[in-house]
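The data are quoted verbatim here:
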Amino acid sequence: AQGSGNIKIAILSEQRGLMARTGTMLKVGAEMAVEDINKAGGIKALGNRKLSLVVEDVGDSIERARSAAQRLVSQHPDAIAGTGAWLSSHTLAITEVTERAKLPWVTLAWADSVTQRGFRYIADVSAPASKLVSESLTRMLDLAEKVTGRRPKTIGLVYDNTAYSLAFIKPLKEGLLDKLQVKAVVDEVFTPGLSDATPLIQRVRSTRP
């Protein structure tokens, strides 16, 4: 509040690789928001100071995400806060760096572990995966029963090995499926970048969840 000049904030997002579409949309959204705020006169509570946005590409791997966070804190020590990345695996790596730098961080990541490490400088504005899976599966089963007159008894689990997906699956295997009286007849995990999903789909077909 006592400073002058633009207020520097940061966004780290995936600009290349499999997750580039969502990462690019987040970057564009952040750029539009900063433009709107500045056109409207900046941050009035801070003497109408304008925002400036630092953008870092976290790439397509955990190592690149960590490196992007390290570049941010070393090259832009005057940044006051940041956001990103939406991918939980990348966010976990990024926030290890930003936490040590005491840089406040806001994320949309879904993995429960993002906010379960005792960190002080992170805020997650999305519901955690454990909550999402409980709410969504319960509603799916209710909807299926309402439409067909029968409550599903079996389910197929096909998921990737990223932090979010594993966090989403964990409650299912640790009692949620039993509680909902649903049996998993397929349980297949894959690594993102899958070139051929045929074997996975054949298992789903053969078990007919």
Notes: The longest strand covers residues 183-190. The chain has a mean pLDDT of 93.
